[in-house]
Amino acid sequence: EAHGLGVSHLNAKSQEADIELQKTRLELELARENITELREENKALYERLGSGSGGQDVVGLEKSIRNYEHELRQESTKRKVLESALENVQSTCSELQSSLVDAESLAAQTKREMYFCNFEKKHLEEELISRRLSCSCGFNSRLNRQTKSKKKKVQTEEIPGSLSDPENMRTALHNSGRTTRRIISESMNKAKSLEDEIVEQKQRHARENQNGAQILRMALISKWRTDL
Q1: Which domains does the chain possess?
Q2: Which has the closest alpha carbon to 50: 62, 40, 67?
């Protein structure tokens, strides 16, 4: 929209400059015609002065010649001013035309970029929805497999000796503690691995939907804590 307004503004300025250019050209043409007429009249006065005819005395003719010469100098000065103004207007028109071309090109480029951005946005939104569904199913399946694996390890863990013997009891408790710590350590490592995967996916999906990735991460951590 800004480029469109800029193009409209440049169009208006260009039209004004064209009008000013036409006006200046007309004034310049009029000044040239005046100069030509004054020169012809001045020439005629000199001829009449040389021939001594025309019904006027020499003093009157010389005065008329001086007046015409003065007007001729004024018209010449005016012509130079108008020519300078014409050059300035032509330069301004050229600059405006160049700016107008650049603005129209930039506006067209912006329109193309906007079209591609909208197309890319739609594509990313569709891909985000697809990845959310697939990632959610994948994480749930992985968590279920890890939960079953942990339960199986706890059930198959053997405790040596009879629990009636204090030494065996201490050994069993020690082994049980080691087993528990090992399970916790493995769970923490797996949780960290899951968190790393979540962070990696969050970085990939950040441009698509940062809030959605954060909600998914919190949901997975909450489920892991519940299973643990």
Answers
A1: 2-121 (1.10.287.1700), 125-227 (no CATH)
A2: 62
Q: Which two tokens stand for residue 56?
A: 């006027």
Burial label for 52, CB within 10 Å (0-12, 13-18, 19+), is: exposed
Cα torsion angle, 52, 57, 59, 63, sign: negative
Per-residue b or e along 105-142, where b marks 16 or more CB atoms closer than 10 Å to that residue's CB: eebeeeeeeeeeeeeeeeeeeeebeebbeebeeebeee
Contact 24, 92 (CB under 8 A): no
Q: What tokens appear for 54 in the block?
A: 């025309």
Give the tokens for residue 136: 């959610």
- The per-residue pLDDT for range 118-155, each reduced to its tens digit, is 888 888 878 787 777 776 555 555 555 655 565 555 44
Rounded to 5°, the CA angle 148-154-155 comes to 90
- Cα–Cα distance, 63 to 44 (Å, whole number): 14
Tell me the one-letter amino acid at 97.
Q
